[in-house]
Predict the structure.
Amino acid sequence: MSDSPYWNPAAETLPRAELEQVQLRGVRDVMTRALATDSMYGRRLKAAGVDPAKIGSLADFAAAVPLTTKDDLRAEMDRTGHALPHLLVPEDEIVIAAPSAGTSGRQTFQAFSAADRDINREITTRLQWCCGFRPHDRLYAMVTPFTVFTHFLRDAAANVGMKWIMTDDHSMANIGRYIDVSLMLKPTVMHVGIATLRAMMEVVTEEKGLDRFGAFRIAVASGAEIGAEARQEFRDRIGVEVYELAGQGSDFNLLCTECDQHDGLHWHGEDHQLVEIVDPDTGLPVPDGEIGEMVLTDFYRQSTPHIRWRTEDLFYAHPEPCGCGRTVKRFTCLGRVSNRVTVAGRAIYPYEIERCLSRSAEGRNREFSMVRQGDDQAKLVLRLVNPVKGDAAALGAAIATHVEGEMRVPVEVEFAEKLAMVGYKTLRVVNADA
């Protein structure tokens, strides 16, 4: 197995036509199960007049079934007084339950049956294997401890065959501890937030003067997009290969990661869920290659499925096959739909700034926030953390000049002692008074 690029070759290389038939059977099944209950989705499907027997294609499914938002779920929580109004099984079948991270507002909740947990372990194992995790590795998982994703990461690592599995939180206040654990216990692979990894690299190289980061060889980084040049800097400065991870870690625990091609993120569980990209304004499907909002249906879930769930994240699907041979779709994540600042009539998204900064020696691998000053502002204001050493004014001027040259808008760079965060994620858009 260790010399195979796939954990589950049959699933990961299934021809698209066969995979779509699996998905069609799956969405029919989850609709049938929902309609048999007095659950949120049962009521929504009945109100829409959906008949699973009349769904002859995935296009039929998209046309017949309404989109669902997190606010729809919150409203049902309020109306029913129940944390899990989308629950389809008796409560005594639940083996894990947890809240979402709450990064977009009030927390929602999810539950997993034993069968759900087993499938999540399988999907998470596929993504770890895809990113190069192997039985001889030692895992250091710096993740949000209260989410069920923590359970699945440990389960998957054990499934891969790893014996050393260390878990921790990921907080900027604990960088020293993470580095001490890494240098002393010598884990070789990690799950980590990108902001945490960047802070760790700065301490290791600038304060400790090391050109390698213990025994680490791979980091699976979540929380934001990274540019190609930023990835190369991790290789050059600390010898770590970074694989980007995106998805719904606390809402779904179904995630996509890069393979060794670093050309888009593979959605590893397509035989257990349906992924759509829709126009965020109209809700209509967009062609592969065009930017839209990701919509998910996790039809394998026995307990609390999500049916045509709006993720609030922008992605685009890559139309061409991947060189790694996987047939599951791959995507590029562009961040939250709402995370934008309008400057001189142009909407600017954080992923554009990340890529722009990545191409600058002064701005590369620096965490940032865009400051929203109004509905349409005259200049782009970027907030960065005060540099540890060097001339802040000169650094800010160099970054501003670079960004102005690429983005073609006026730019101002300001510095702060720290940036606003939610959990382990830097808030990419903040209000001027924040």
Observations:
- The chain has two domains: 8-262+298-304, 341-431.
